[in-house]
């Protein structure tokens, strides 16, 4: 059964992918968001088990360079005092991104439902969230919560692989490597993510259009939603 898109409220239609396991997805033709059917998602215990298997070490030079490239983009044309409050949302079992920002002189707080539970209150000047949004069951709720903890003018910078599939090219989604991870349950276009952010007062403020996007809080979510 079709359901409204959680990103833009548009109509969605169901499609299936058959490899390696048959999974059902909902595609929104308005904003492009693709969501795995909720009944086919992993349980929290299964999800945790997969995250605990991740091996993300800063001794891996390629991994370290990837993290550094994200940090460089985050701080590009953005001067931030080392006393500023920073939150790394979805820090994971090994908070490597936070460790690298700490090496640059910043104090970084952590938040992760499994490995750093709780919600540091902020307000934060910067919130980072790298390879997290594709795991979210309710991204709209997460964005609202994060926006409420940003100071006005603060930035939310995320990393997730954007897709460019259309209704006509959805048959190619099956072979997209980013889909193969069973903990990846939601897939954005840049257009769709921009729309979601605007709903909570966050305006596009940089990124590469492929994997990284930064947003600046222009007004608190309460006022943004009234608009």
Topology:
Elements: E1 12-17, E2 23-28, E3 34-36, H1 44-52, H2 61-75, E4 86-89, H3 96-103, E5 108-111, E6 124-130, H4 139-148, E7 150-159, E8 186-187, H5 190-198, E9 202-207, E10 212-217, H6 221-226
Parallel strand pairs: 4-5, 4-6, 6-7
Antiparallel strand pairs: 1-2, 2-3, 3-8, 7-10, 9-10
Helix pairs in contact: 2-3
In a few lines, what is going on in this structure?
The protein has helices at 44-52, 61-75, 96-103, 139-148, 190-198, 221-226, and strands at residues 12-17, 23-28, 34-36, 86-89, 108-111, 124-130, 150-159, 186-187, 202-207, 212-217. By secondary structure, the chain is α/β, with parallel strands linked by helices.
CATH topology category name: Rossmann fold
What's the count of strands? 10
**H/E series, N to C?**
EEEHHEHEEHEEHEEH
Tell me the radius of gyration.
Answer: 17 Å
Fold and architecture overview:
The protein has 227 residues and is α/β, with parallel strands linked by helices. It has a single domain, classed as 3-Layer(aba) Sandwich (Rossmann fold), CATH 3.40.50.150. It is 25% helix and 24% strand. It has a six-stranded mixed sheet with strand order 5-4-6-7-10-9, sandwiched between helices. It has a four-stranded antiparallel sheet with strand order 1-2-3-8, with no helix packed on it. Helix 2 crosses helix 3 (96-103). The chain starts with 11 loop residues before the first strand and ends with a helix.
């Amino acid at each position: 059964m079709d359901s409204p898109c959680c990103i833009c409220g548009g109509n969605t239609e169901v499609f299936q992918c058959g490899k390696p396991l048959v999974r059902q997805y909902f595609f929104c033709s308005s904003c492009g968001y693709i969501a795995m059917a909720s009944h086919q998602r992993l349980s929290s215990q299964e999800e945790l088990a997969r995250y605990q298997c991740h091996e993300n070490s800063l001794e891996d030079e390629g991994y370290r360079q990837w993290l550094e490239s994200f940090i460089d983009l985050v701080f590009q044309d953005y001067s931030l005092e080392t006393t500023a409050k920073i939150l790394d949302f979805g820090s994971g079992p090994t908070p490597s991104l936070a460790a690298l920002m700490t090496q640059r002189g910043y104090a970084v707080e952590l938040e992760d439902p499994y490995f750093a539970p709780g919600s540091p209150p902020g307000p934060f000047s910067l919130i980072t969230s790298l390879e997290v949004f594709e795991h979210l069951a309710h991204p709209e709720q997460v964005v609202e919560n994060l926006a409420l903890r940003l100071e006005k003018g603060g930035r939310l910078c995320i990393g997730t692989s954007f897709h460019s599939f259309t209704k006509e090219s959805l048959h190619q989604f099956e072979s997209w490597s980013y889909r193969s991870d069973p903990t990846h349950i939601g897939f954005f276009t840049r257009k769709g993510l921009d729309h979601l952010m605007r709903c909570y007062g966050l305006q596009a403020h940089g990124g590469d259009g492929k994997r990284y996007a930064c947003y600046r809080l222009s007004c608190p979510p309460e006022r943004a939603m009234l608009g």
